[in-house]
Amino acid sequence: MATMKDIARLAKVSTSTVSHVINGSRFVSDEIREKVMLIVADLNYTPSAVARSLKVKETKTIGLLVTATNNPFFAEVMAGVEQYCHQHQYNLIIATTGGDAKRLQQNLQTLLHKQVDGLLLMCGDSRFNADTELSISVPLVIMDWWFKELNADKILENSTFGGYLATKTLIEAGHQNIGIITGNLKKSVAKNRLEGYKKALSEAEIPLNNDWLIESHFDFEGGIIGMQNYLPHHTVQLPYFVAAMRLHWVLIKYFNNRVYEFRRTFPLLVTMTSNFPVIFIPLFLPLTNLKPN
């Protein structure tokens, strides 16, 4: 691989002159500039990004750490982040945690060792340890969750209001017995949506029935288990507020695989943050989509 020393030797100039030509950092005569650039082309020379980053203390790279890439919400966020980075000549490195705290720590350290210029974290199912907090010396933005002890900018949705608005929509449609499929209540998003659900019931003076609360993991397998544990033992057809798009898919799948009939008296309301193809929703299952503005 050619180096600036090779170019300088062939052009009979100093390495600093070659550097100024390549980086445009100082005036160099047209004659010397043309000679250097011809040699650069002949040698197929590519400047070292690592060397440049050490000099200017900038890698033009952003690190994004997410729980999973197969979640539609995460996928859309990643697409938006990548597009914005591309528009501003930044590279994006994506790493996943799989919901594992140890993996989060390892991938976070890997991104920091690559000297990223900034970090975006979207993994609300994990926690930091004190050593990791102290090691984060780059600009940090947390999305979709919050960690109060960590000093960082935060981008959050109002999950409590979302849960409230979803439940209120069903109440205004004339429903009184309303169930909720929350997702994992260890996660702040699920807890906040449940609080909004309770608030709407309380305002309407509808008593809370804990039998109508289904806690489930946000993944497909956990959602199916939640349905299997709950629905076969309850014959009353309730309208349901589904607190996550993937849990809505689980419910649709569960209904499709069962022999008993779900009539149009079983509506669903789902908080939808991704462009889910509505064509896959069974015609017998009425759906209300509550999208954020």
From TrEMBL:
Domain HTH lacI-type: 2-56
Family matches, as Gene3D superfamilies: 3.40.50.2300, lambda repressor-like DNA-binding domains
Gene that encodes it: rbsR
Biological source species: Rodentibacter pneumotropicus
Name of the protein in its database record: Ribose operon repressor
Residue ranges crossing the lipid bilayer per the database entry: 268-287
UniProt GO molecular function: DNA-binding transcription factor activity; transcription cis-regulatory region binding
UniProt KW keywords: DNA-binding, Membrane, Transcription, Transcription regulation, Transmembrane, Transmembrane helix
Keyword Electron transport: no
InterPro entries attached to this UniProt entry: HTH_LacI, Lambda_DNA-bd_dom_sf, Peripla_BP/Lac1_sug-bd_dom, Peripla_BP_I
Any coiled-coil regions, as ranges: none
